[in-house]
From TrEMBL:
<feature type="domain" description="Manganese/iron superoxide dismutase N-terminal">
    <location>
        <begin position="2"/>
        <end position="84"/>
    </location>
</feature>
<comment type="similarity">
    <text>Belongs to the iron/manganese superoxide dismutase family.</text>
</comment>
<keyword id="KW-0479">Metal-binding</keyword>
<keyword id="KW-0560">Oxidoreductase</keyword>
<comment type="function">
    <text>Destroys radicals which are normally produced within the cells and which are toxic to biological systems.</text>
</comment>
<dbReference type="Pfam" id="PF00081">
    <property type="entry name" value="Sod_Fe_N"/>
</dbReference>
<dbReference type="InterPro" id="IPR036314">
    <property type="entry name" value="SOD_C_sf"/>
</dbReference>
<dbReference type="InterPro" id="IPR001189">
    <property type="entry name" value="Mn/Fe_SOD"/>
</dbReference>
<dbReference type="InterPro" id="IPR019831">
    <property type="entry name" value="Mn/Fe_SOD_N"/>
</dbReference>
<dbReference type="InterPro" id="IPR019833">
    <property type="entry name" value="Mn/Fe_SOD_BS"/>
</dbReference>
<feature type="domain" description="Manganese/iron superoxide dismutase C-terminal">
    <location>
        <begin position="94"/>
        <end position="192"/>
    </location>
</feature>
<protein>
    <recommendedName>
        <fullName>Superoxide dismutase</fullName>
        <ecNumber>1.15.1.1</ecNumber>
    </recommendedName>
</protein>
<dbReference type="Pfam" id="PF02777">
    <property type="entry name" value="Sod_Fe_C"/>
</dbReference>
<dbReference type="InterPro" id="IPR036324">
    <property type="entry name" value="Mn/Fe_SOD_N_sf"/>
</dbReference>
<dbReference type="InterPro" id="IPR019832">
    <property type="entry name" value="Mn/Fe_SOD_C"/>
</dbReference>
Length: 199
């Protein structure tokens, strides 16, 4: 399949003040669009044209770095927009909350560890909540890499590339991560991805 840029599931100003209209315009319309456009060019002639985004990400990992970079970032961003919503954050839904208690020591510890993963990712990358071997795990990856290539299924990810937060937070990555968890996360979507990952 060729990559296509999705519409945002909310208005550009819907996530303010935690993520500004300007950030979303740059991040979605320029950065994500570039991954789509470049990814489509790099996909030509690879024999992967008819595959799903997930299959392209896995097949290009370690074999075709330029394609992997763009396919990975396309996959990551397809979900990143869905992982946020206006008036997000709040209580984690029941089934997922119980699993977080079991595997990650409770909601507060999970949040602290997730923020630390994002802070501790040197340079560009992502912080993740993923399902691996039936258990929840917090992961971090560089650049466009994601848990798919490490045998895990991501159910929540936060983009810690500077273009994701620098307009709004400058160099305050911890504040951005905290705002993401407390005010932006669409927990219903995370719960849906958790159900799919464990089905």
């Amino acid at each position: 399949m060729t990559f296509t840029l999705p519409e945002l599931p909310y208005a550009y100003d819907a996530l303010a003040p935690y993520m500004s209209k300007e950030t979303l315009e740059f991040h979605h319309d320029k950065h994500h669009k570039a991954y789509v456009d470049t990814g489509n060019k790099l996909l030509e002639g690879t024999g992967l044209e008819g595959k799903s985004v997930e299959e392209i990400v896995k097949a290009s990992y370690g074999n075709n770095q330029p394609l992997f970079n763009n396919a990975g970032q396309h996959f990551n961003h397809l979900h990143f927009w869905q992982w946020m919503k206006p008036n997000g954050g709040g209580a984690i839904p029941g089934t997922l909350a119980k699993k977080i208690d079991e595997d990650l020591g409770g909601a507060e510890k999970f949040k602290a560890d997730f923020i630390q993963a994002g802070i501790g990712q040197f340079g560009s990358g992502w912080a993740w909540l993923a399902v691996k071997d039936g258990k929840l795990a917090i992961m971090k990856t560089p650049n466009g890499e994601n848990p798919l290539v490490h045998g895990a299924k991501p159910i929540l990810g936060c983009d810690v590339w500077e273009h994701s937060y620098y307009i709004d937070y400058r160099n305050r990555r911890p504040d951005y991560l905290k705002a993401f968890l407390e005010n932006l996360v669409n927990w219903e979507h995370v719960e849906k991805m958790y159900a799919e990952a464990t089905a």
